[in-house]
Design brief:
This protein is an all-alpha fold and 129 residues long. It has 3 helices and no strands.
Length: 129
């Protein structure tokens, strides 16, 4: 019976430190792996950085579009901008203009409708008067 008393006495002395270690381990694990732990904080930080980069790109694009729209407002209509947009959208050029296409076909617009050589694979240069 004295052995059983000795075991109980030792368990009573060890019980507190074991419980404290278990609580510290539990809290430490959740501080790192938990829903609001260090790993989750790091992931949220990375997501915020990616979102801020995307936001900066979108803001720059929006500002560029707002500038272009501002040039097309009736109060401050820019004739060059209107002319450029009309030519691109309608695919037209004036008869007295010369249109020169690059080798790769990039001309900033398109050749006018009804051009000579259509479908022949040749580039349209335009009319010279």
């Amino acid at each position: 019976m004295s052995v059983l008393k000795e075991i109980r006495r030792r368990v009573r002395h060890v019980w507190g430190p074991v419980l404290a270690a278990a609580v510290i381990g539990y809290l430490g694990y959740h501080a790192v792996q938990g829903e609001r732990g260090l790993i989750a904080w790091w992931q949220v930080t990375q997501q915020i950085e990616r979102s801020e980069a995307t936001l900066a790109e979108v803001r720059a694009e929006r500002e560029a579009l707002e500038r272009r729209v501002g040039l097309l407002q009736p109060e401050s209509l820019d004739p060059d901008m209107l002319d450029e947009r009309a030519r691109i959208m309608l695919n037209l050029a004036r008869p007295d203009e010369v249109v020169i296409l690059n080798e790769d076909g990039e001309d900033g617009g398109r050749a006018p409708s009804g051009d000579v050589g259509r479908g022949s694979g040749k580039q349209w240069i335009g009319e010279i008067r």
